[in-house]
Amino acid sequence: MSETQREEGTPVLPREFAPPTEREFTGYQRLVYREAGIWLSEAKKALLVGRVSRRLRELGGLSFGDYLRRAEEDEGERVRLLDALCTHETHFFREPRHFELLEREVLPRWRAHGDTGMGEGRQVRVWSAGCSSGEEPFSLAMVLRHHLPAEEGWDIQILATDLSTRVLERARQALWPVDKAEEIPKSYLRAYMLRGVGSQEGKMKAGPELRSLVRFQRVNLNDGQGVVGRFDLIFCRNVLIYFDMASKTRAVERLLSHLSPQGLLFLGHSESLTGPGWGVRTVIPTVYAPRPLPRDATRRG
């Protein structure tokens, strides 16, 4: 999942729309929480009204109550509802300290050792959870490809996932307004991005080398289905802030279950894992590594 449910002003409803009743809003709260682990507080009511109203128009003016019943019964409509409630705001190379850690410490160490410590040669697996419109996984692709060149045998695989099918389709296109170029270091921009011409003027696109590294998939962190294997790096930034403690606990447990023993988990700047229960240690703020097992436990294992 990407950043969701930002505050919006009170929407002006068309005359044909009556706002949801308290009972109906409670129904939406329960549905969204059950499906995505996100609790819509009373303060998010205006957001829900504004976003769902667009879908009601598309369906010919259903009421909020009618649409709630439809979403309850139709899995495809539930996906559309979650799509409607998602706001996707992201940037290339967001939270620079994370990329500095990779470029100054992690990737030089992997290159010097000739592997990631997973015992699988020069294969690198990365999961960008909550990838939004693709800026994060493609930022990672640029950094990894630069430091771990293909001619040295490095095989890079990036899984980019999001709850929203709509935003995943945008991410697959790997196409952005050319204004986004300002967020990308010039050396990476020249090496990996293509400037649009003709009908694509004013846009930029990731080059074929980068696109070959990234695979997109819809994944709901609330159920964790569809993700297989371990990853050397997991980025899940600015997603957990929208979960309550129970949902956050489930999501973090799933993320850590897919993290390699030598891997790193990256969270957003306002997210943290505190306390010994998580079984991780802090590398730098918001970056975590699995805590090594005691020697006795390692021998027993």
UniProtKB/TrEMBL annotation:
This is protein-glutamate O-methyltransferase. Residues 21-275 form the CheR-type methyltransferase domain. The keyword Metal-binding does not apply. It comes from the Bacteria. Pfam families: CheR, CheR_N. InterPro entries: Bact_Chemotaxis_MeTrfase (IPR050903), Chemotaxis_MeTrfase_CheR (IPR026024), CheR_C (IPR022642), CheR_MeTrfase (IPR000780), CheR_N (IPR022641), CheR_N_sf (IPR036804), SAM-dependent_MTases_sf (IPR029063). One of its GO terms (biological process) is methylation.
